[in-house]
Request: fold
Amino acid sequence: MTSIAMQRRRATASRVWAQFRGSRQGMIGLAVLLVFVAMALAAPLLADVRELNPVFARAQGNPQWAPPSVFPPLGTDYIRRSVWAQFVWGSRVSLFVGLAATVLTILIGSVVGIVSGFVGGKVDAIFMRVTEWFLVIPFLPLAIVLASVLGRNVWNIIFVIGITSWPSTARLVRAQVLTVKQRLFVDRARSLGAGGGHIVAHHILPNVSGLILANATLAVPISILTETTLSFLGLGDPSAASWGKTLEEAFVNGAMARNAWWYFLPAGLGILAVVLAFTLIGRTLEEIANPRLSRSR
Amino acid sequence: MLVFNFFLFRVVQTDPIGSLFRGRNVPQSTIDNLRVAFGLDQPIGTQFLYYLRETAQLNFGLSYQSRQPVWDEIVRAIPATLALVGISSILSAVIGTFGGIVAAWRRNTWKDHSITSSTMVFYSMPDFWLGMILLVLFAVVLGWFPVGGITTAGSNETGLARLIDQAYHMFLPALTLTLAYLGEYTLVTRSSLLDVMGEDYLTVARAKGLRDVRVRNRHAVPNALLPVVTLTAINFGFVLSGAIAVEAVYSWPGLGKATADAIRGPDLPMLQALFLLFSAAVIVFNLIADITYSWLDPRVEEI
Reply:
């Protein structure tokens, strides 16, 4: 890449950041997100991982179903484990699954969208048929069926979410590629002898990356919520307890009849905060990437 | 012609998927005589034909859990889901659209901000978690509503009294779903109306001296509602599959709870039939959405 192009990229990045800083909702979302990312990274410092083990919890002499007033900061559950430890360590799994599934979603969606839009013709027709087909089958039931067929494990969940949620990204990226392809600089590059790979890498990709980034940020909430629902329905990984898994255990073991609010409130609030943070960031990025939106809002 | 293609390839493709995961999965989880009983020792082509025939006759085999025919179980669960999710969908579509109109028309006022942010909060939480909170608050702590089910256990009321009892049981799950669905309608209506509000013909309408309310109701809203109509029609397709986790929370005896129970098994014939039904519903309503859209917006036919 030439240095002029590098400079231009850097200028674009700093312009986007300046615009982003000016948006209150974007900055709030970013701040909330950073808090949770810090929590997930610092999990070993915040809570002992052994607290997740019921044998350890019993040996510690933890009380059962203790409210936060008895066992700070967040009480204990039906097998004496600290809810705080579950919350802290659950944030790791929830964020990881959400982000990894989104990466997969965006990867499949972008590749299909770019190939489909750039190559056109028969390839486009076939790809779009497949996309439409995936778009139309009910997303959650398909995810449930796949997850129960594949088995309960973090990687399967990531795979299931990725494979079921890429079509909207593919359509969006394809539409954008189709407009970029018409632009003069693509013709110019081609007449200078550039091949398809070069054009995609140096001309198409930089022009759709903003859109892909905004779309990715908006896809994270869906991934996280899907993971939560799948876990709640008993399809979560038993060895890696996410927030959704905590909610499932609370529900199955009767936390609601006991009014053990300290057991199921934190995990849900965590999901709410993270999802909201990503939505706020995503909407801000979308407004920056697509100025038509920001004018009307 | 377009619609026909659209319909055809989907119907044809839905079946193999169903047969595929059946064929792949049963051998792992059950013993060989089940393979023979389900015809899985046959070559895949024969299996597929067999499967098509059985599906056409609505014969999905026996549920692993209850040993009852799967289709009977499903038919029994449909009315509960239709009632619950149907009512919640209609309520959320109406309230959400109205909220979106108010938010867009009074853009950047406190009304807009409170509507937009509150619906976004409901939109961002897992629906079943909202259900759990409402359940604990109104049923466990305050005791105003029953904790679950569709009728009071042991009651043998009939007629109107039974209906009232069911409505009483439906209140909390319906409230949960309505709040959970609201956000989408509000946000879509709002952004669609904002798009329309920049159009010239609204300025013309104002220049004619029409009152603000009339400009809104007669000129802006009808045009802005197009995407909302599509969204509604598509969402109705998801009615049958829409409330899996929420039904599980309230032990509402519908298709969602049947799905949740089938997962725990796992009850594969049940899951397979449910998935087929859910897909069929989505396809039918997508078709309806397409037709309504081209009927409402003549521009679609030009494309």
